[in-house]
């Protein structure tokens, strides 16, 4: 998947002369239908292609291929975005929300990779409550994924959630 993302970003840069994910982020900010939260350096959104319920991407506003190049303010803003997202996730079903999280960035073989816009993916398995999970089964495993919820509906629910953790808010 990172190899495919790298090829797509390189093809887009070669064809359009600009960054694919920067362009995508600009379009999402214009539409404002799938944004979950933002700060000065980062935007969290539900991508239009989301398959897992409440799937989220964190994208840096500034172009760059390597998380190691972040400045002090950007590091603080990344911690802010990740913390706020995890609190909203916990608040969604009032549970310690499980997720797979991973970072895609340029390969580390030392070549210049101007096409890469690093980012983080969150792929959570819960669908309707702490106990009702999303399963990829039958048609989904053998043909194509099916969506239980639209990306817009997921983004709206996450956007509306409090950033005071549910365990704190009851005190
Ligand atoms: Zn970029
Ligand atoms: Zn990616």
Account of the 3D structure:
The protein has 171 residues and is α+β, with helices and mostly antiparallel strands. It has helices at residues 2-16, 20-31, 72-93, 138-142, 151-160, 166-169; strands spanning 35-38, 42-45, 56-60, 100-104, 119-123. The protein has a single domain, classed as HIT family, subunit A (2-Layer Sandwich), CATH 3.30.428. It contains six helices and five strands. Strands 1-2-3-5-4 form a five-stranded antiparallel beta sheet, sandwiched between helices. A hairpin with a 3-residue loop joins strand 1 (35-38) and strand 2 (42-45). The longest helix has 22 residues, at 72-93. The protein is globular. The relative contact order is 0.19. The structure holds zinc ion (ZN) (2 copies). One zinc ion (ZN) binds at residues 19, 21-22, 63, 117.
Give unreliable regions as ranges.
none
Second rung of CATH, namely the architecture = 2-Layer Sandwich
Structural class: alpha+beta
Query: Which hetero compounds are present in the coordinates?
Result: zinc ion
The backbone outline, from C-alpha atoms, is globular
Radius of gyration: 17 Å
Helicity range: 25-40%
- How far the N terminus sits from the C terminus, by CA atoms, comes to 44 Å
Mean pLDDT: 95
Major β-sheet annotation: 5 strands, antiparallel
Q: Would you list the SSEs in sequence order as H and E?
A: HHEEEHEEHHH
Stated plainly, the CATH topology is called HIT family, subunit A
